[in-house]
Specification:
Blueprint (H helix, E strand, L loop, with lengths): L2 H9 L4 H12 L9 H14 L3 E5 L5 H8 L6 E6 L2 H13 L6 E5 L2 H10 L4 E6 L6 H11 E10 L15 H15 L3 E6 L5 E6 L2
Parallel strand pairs: 1-2, 1-4, 2-3, 4-5
Antiparallel strand pairs: 5-7, 6-7
Helix pairs in contact: 2-5, 3-4, 6-7
C-alpha cells in the first residue's frame, strides 16, 4: 500500500455529497481536476482551525473544494468563489445547494484577475484564500491574495509540486516556471510564514503576518 493510499484509507470516508459532485462533473464532460479527498479534508480542518469568517476561492470547477471549505466555516461565514466559466459556476452553485450551503456562497464569473480587481473596489477582505486555478497566474494570484488578506489570514494553494516537476531543473516549461516563482515567493516573502506539504500534488500553506 502506498503512503497516499494509507492516508486515504484512514482519514477519508465515503462521502455521498462529494461523490455526487464528482459524478456531476463527469456528466458535464468536464475535466475531473477537483482536489483529492485528503486535500478536501485538510481544507476543512484548516478553515476550522483558522476560525475564518470570509473565504475567497480562486477556481470553483464543480464545487468540490467549495463544499470542503464551507464545511469548516463559522455559522456566520461566507464563501466568495471566482470561476472563469459560467457553466462551471452554475454547476458548483447547484452542488453547494444540494449540500445545504447554497445561501453561503457568492460566485463571480469571468477572468479571475478582473474579479479580484472588483473585490478590491468593493473593499473586500478575507481570512482564508484558496488558490486552485490556471497555474501561469499563480504569482499574480498571490499578489492579489496579499492585497485582499486580513492580518493573520491563511493563503493556501494546490498543485504546487506539479508531480515533482518543480524539482527538476532540466524541465523548461513556462507553466512549471510560474509555479517555481510562486513557491519561491511564498517561501521568502517577509509578509508570510509558510510551508509546502507533499500531500496530493503539493499544498502550499502560508499565514499573513500580523
Amino acid at each position: 500500500m502506498k503512503v497516499e493510499e494509507y492516508i486515504h484509507s484512514l482519514f477519508t470516508k465515503d462521502d455521498r455529497i462529494l461523490d455526487d459532485v464528482l459524478e456531476s462533473i463527469q456528466a458535464k464532460g468536464m475535466r475531473n481536476i477537483s482536489v483529492p479527498p485528503e486535500i478536501g479534508k485538510l481544507l476543512t480542518l484548516l478553515v476550522k482551525i483558522s476560525g475564518a469568517k470570509e473565504i475567497l476561492e480562486i477556481g470553483a470547477l464543480g464545487g468540490y473544494s467549495g463544499i470542503c471549505l464551507v464545511r469548516g466555516l463559522r455559522e456566520d461565514g461566507q464563501l466568495t468563489s471566482l470561476e472563469l466559466m459560467q457553466e462551471y459556476a452554475e454547476l458548483a452553485h447547484e452542488n453547494l445547494k444540494k449540500a445545504g450551503f447554497g445561501d453561503r456562497v457568492t460566485y463571480y464569473t469571468g477572468e479571475a484577475l478582473k474579479s479580484l480587481e472588483q473585490l478590491e473596489a468593493e473593499q473586500r477582505k478575507f481570512d482564508f484564500i484558496f488558490i486552485d486555478a490556471d497555474k501561469p497566474n499563480y504569482p499574480n494570484y498571490l499578489d492579489w491574495a496579499l492585497r485582499l488578506a486580513n492580518p493573520g489570514a491563511l493563503i493556501v494553494a494546490d498543485n504546487v509540486l506539479q508531480r515533482g516537476r518543480v524539482c527538476e531543473e532540466s524541465i523548461d516549461d513556462p507553466r512549471i516556471e510560474c509555479i517555481r516563482a510562486f513557491n519561491e515567493r511564498v517561501a521568502n516573502d517577509p509578509m508570510l510564514e509558510s510551508i509546502i506539504l507533499p500531500i496530493g500534488d503539493g499544498l502550499s500553506i502560508a499565514r499573513v503576518r500580523q
